[in-house]
Task: inverse folding
């Protein structure tokens, strides 16, 4: 409803989450708790103008700076908006505006959700993930995939429509499904129960995690699990079971978590995918640190990740 959208955009109670190159505003509030910060929508336009240097080129299209309606919190509208066309040096005006309306906040900055996610309240994290995912789509979906003409934003930022009068093709935000799986072996007379973890060479030293990969066209989620494990570690699996999912807007995925039972044991890594993969028992994993720690030799994924949930869940089952 365009009339209602316009009323919300002109309301003094409406708030906006500015997103700069995937980062959102946060600050230390109250007893040093990290919180998401927003700014009034009516003051955001002035901040955008003030932040834009005279030498900076205009945004690539009108859709690039569109306000995206996220929903209502306590009856007040909340929007997101990409300001990714600004240089880092031009963000001070946004920090100052956030400080003005959150006077008890300190250390206000634009921060990556992967850093702040574990520290902010769950509702803040969910809203930040939503804003990050939609603004990324706005920043990258600029032209029609059918005719190449410029797109404009409709439906409060949740649809893009082609400007070509002979086309009018509509585009929608997309989510790419990815499977993430903990492969296990049952205990035997000669061995405790084991799980398979691998590491990517780009990760910090000592970090091991579950295997993962994107779902291919024409395959089921269970088939994707089996294919990825076979491709990456040459391990065959069966009894694939769904466990839990996690939104992963980096840039636009959802991580679908599974467990699977191994039907083979000899690991052969695809070195283009994995630097190493090993079988670990629960006792070994309990001695691991966490990604980001300096001291531990081996480390597990961050505690807010679906990978860590799958691993911790399996460890707890072995200790029953």
Result:
């Amino acid at each position: 409803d365009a009339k209602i959208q316009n009323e919300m955009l002109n309301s003094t109670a409406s708030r906006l989450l500015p997103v700069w190159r995937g980062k959102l505003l946060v600050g230390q509030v109250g007893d040093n708790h990290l919180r998401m910060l927003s700014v009034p929508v009516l003051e955001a336009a002035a901040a955008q103008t003030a932040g834009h240097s005279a030498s900076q080129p205009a945004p690539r299209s009108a859709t690039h700076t569109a306000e995206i309606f996220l929903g209502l919190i306590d009856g007040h509208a909340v929007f997101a908006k990409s300001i990714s066309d600004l240089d880092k040096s031009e963000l001070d005006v946004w920090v100052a505006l956030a400080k003005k309306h959150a006077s008890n906040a300190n250390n206000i900055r634009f921060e990556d959700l992967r850093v702040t996610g574990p520290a902010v309240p769950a509702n803040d994290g969910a809203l930040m993930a939503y804003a990050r995912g939609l603004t990324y789509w706005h920043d990258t979906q600029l032209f029609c995939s059918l005719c190449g003409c410029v797109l404009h934003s409709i439906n409060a930022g949740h649809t893009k429509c082609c400007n070509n009068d002979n086309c009018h093709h509509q585009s929608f935000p997309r989510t790419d499904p990815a499977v993430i799986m903990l492969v296990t072996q049952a205990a035997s007379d000669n061995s405790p129960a084991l799980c398979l973890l691998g590491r990517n060479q780009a990760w910090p030293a000592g970090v091991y995690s579950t295997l993962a990969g994107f779902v291919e066209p024409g395959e089921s989620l269970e088939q994707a699990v089996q294919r990825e494990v076979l491709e990456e570690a040459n391990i065959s699996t069966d009894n694939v079971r769904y466990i839990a999912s996690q939104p992963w807007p980096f840039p636009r995925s959802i991580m679908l978590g599974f467990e699977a039972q191994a039907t083979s044991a000899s690991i052969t890594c695809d070195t283009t995918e994995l630097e190493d993969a090993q079988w670990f028992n629960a006792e070994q994993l309990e001695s691991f640190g966490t990604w980001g720690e300096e001291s531990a030799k081996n480390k597990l994924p961050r505690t807010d990740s679906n990978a860590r949930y799958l691993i911790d869940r399996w460890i707890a089952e072995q200790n029953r």
Notes: Residues 122-140 form the longest helix (19 residues). The CA atoms of residues 89 and 306 lie 35 Å apart.
